[in-house]
Amino acid sequence: MAAQNLQSVPAELTPEEDAAGQAHFDRIIAEDSRIEPRDWMPAAYRKTLLRQVSQHAHSEIIGMQPEANWISRAPSLKRKAILMAKVQDEAGHGLYLYSAAETLGQSRDKMMDDLIAGKARYSSIFNYPALTWADMGAIGWLVDGAAICNQVPLCRASYGPYGRAMVRICKEESFHQRQGFEILLELSNGTPEQKQMAQDAVNRWYAPALMMFGPPDDDSPNSKQSMAWNIKRFSNDELRSRFVGMMVEQVRVLGLTLPDDQIRFNEDTRKWEHGPLDWDEFHEVLAGRGPCNAQRLERRRAAHDDGAWVREAAAAYADKQRAKQSAKQQKEYAA
Ligand SMILES: [Fe+2]
Ligand SMILES: [Fe+2]
Predict the structure, then answer these.
(1) In the chain, how many H helices and how many E strands?
(2) What angle do CA 62, 286, 61 make, to 5 degrees?
(3) DSSP labels for 188-237?
(4) Residue pair 27/7 in contact by the 8 Å Cβ criterion
(5) Which are the contacts of 194, defined by CB distance < 8 A and separation ≥ 6?
(6) How many C-beta neighbours within 10 Å does residue 320 have?
(7) In this structure, how many other beta carbons lie within 10 angstroms of the beta carbon of residue 89?
(8) Among candidate residues 295, 257, 246, 304, the one with its CA nearest the CA of residue 126
(9) pLDDT for 94-116, tens place per residue?
(10) How far apart are the CA of 86 and the centre of ligand 2, in A?
(11) What CA–CA distances, in Å, run from 162 to 101, 155, 290?
């Protein structure tokens, strides 16, 4: 079904056509305009984007799991409705992003196969467990907050379908962050036990959220090329520093603290600095050895199997519609 939606991957071109394509591509990038699916693009640009957009799509749908676990345990009907809407938004983000990735020439089926076979990556943050209700607050505030910081600049990414998908995603992410903040605010102003629960959740999600921006700049070999192609606009460390600055302000309003006593504003560089992060842990989680990696993939596989009948029914319906359409056209030609 998905394969029929694919944009065609360019056929073999002559060296002259390639050179003209490269010149056009370079001009578009220099003008800071947009590359569209049918434009010529360097193979490495296509590959980089396909990896980034598909990983991003996988993160959205795997990211539904830690929160979906709490829908049935939300403390009120209102909280349940809000959380359900939020988790549903994440499914929608996955949909926009898989669609954007398909325009680069890979079917959604293939991307999904890679994910459930454990061959594709997704954000390491979703391999941590959500232990208490306060984690819904910390995830919304810190994880969606970090996602916004990362994603707002991606609205200007040079690849059209990706940038346009990000515009809508960012609008929804800001609602997600506010709902997380509001959960923490209420807990923080509740009983001492509730406040402690909120603080504990912030303590556990703070460092993994900071690591969402990716490895430090000197250990991020692909960043430079992505910035030259106008996919990325700011380096990992730059975005991380901005995020810390935002959180420092907001945590005061929450009446909580960040578990990092080395946060400071460097007057010389005009940047926020934070304490050391455990990059060994980051690489371990990314390599599949985090607390919930196996569980997340297992759940994704089960959901994929459970949904097989829906995909089959949709494909059968699409076939029927197509047959009807072509019969109608034949009739019209004959008339
Ligand atoms: Fe999202
Ligand atoms: Fe979100």
Answers:
(1) 14, 2
(2) 10
(3) HTS-HHHHHHHHHHHHHHHHHHHHTT-S-GGG-TTHHHHHHTTS--S-HH
(4) no
(5) 134, 187, 188
(6) 10
(7) 20
(8) 295
(9) 999 999 999 999 999 999 999 99
(10) 7
(11) 8, 8, 29
Residue 2 has pLDDT above 60, yes or no: no
Q: Tell me the pLDDT tens digit for each residue of 268-288.
A: 999 999 999 999 999 999 888
pLDDT bin (cut points 50, 70, 90) of residue 122 is: very high
The answer to whether the CB of 141 falls within 8 A of the CB of 180 is: yes
Tokens of 101: 């990735």
* 218's tokens: 């000197």
Mean pLDDT of all residues in 155-170: 96
The pLDDT, as a whole number, for residue 1 is 40
pLDDT at 309 > cutoff 90: yes
* Nearest CA-CA partner of 148 in 160, 166, 132: 166
What CA–CA distance (Å, rounded) separates 195 from 206? 16
Task: Report how far ligand 2's centroid is from the alpha carbon of 123 (Å).
Answer: 13
CA 164 to centroid of ligand 1, rounded, Å: 14
CA of 169 to the centre of ligand 1 (A): 6
